[in-house]
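User: My instructor asked us to take a sequence, write out its structure as C-alpha cells, and then describe one feature of it. I'm not sure where to start. Here is the sequence I was given:
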Amino acid sequence: MPRSLKPLRQVALQELQKFNEATMGGTLGIVFTDLGLGHLSASMPVDSRTLQPFGLLHGGASVALAETLGSVAAFLTLEPGYAAVGLEINANHIKGVRSGLVVGTARPVHTGRTTQVWQIEIVDAEGDLVCTSRITMSIIAVK
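Assistant: Let's start with the prediction itself. The C-alpha cells for your sequence are:
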C-alpha cells in the first residue's frame, strides 16, 4: 500500500458485522468476509431481498453493498472523534446475476484529511465483474 494511503484499522469481522445490525446492510444480508490493511470485502446474497422484478440483481442493491463497504472501510482509517459520510457514489452495472452470492471489495484511491475516495468492485461466484463503483466520503468531526 502506498504511504500516501492510510491502512485500515484491523478489527474482528464480528465487530464489523455489528455495523449491519438493524440497518439496510443487515436487511440485505451483507456479511463482512475479509479485512486487510488495504481492503475490505463483504458478500451479499442474490435472493428475493436483492432482486428486481425481472429476476436480476437490483442495481440499487449493488450500490447499497458498495456504499456499505466504502463507508465502513473509510471509518476504519479514522481517528476517534471523526466519521465518514457519503458525498457521491456512482456505479456501472456490467453483468446481470440471478442467484447465488456476490462479493464486493473496497480499496482506497485517496485517504485525505477531509475527503476519501474508494473503489469498489463487485464480482459473482465465478469472479466475473458485476459492478464497479466509486464513492467519495467527507470526513467530519463528531461530538
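For the description part of your assignment, you could build on this observation: DSSP finds three helices and six strands in the chain. Try explaining in your own words what that tells you about the chain.
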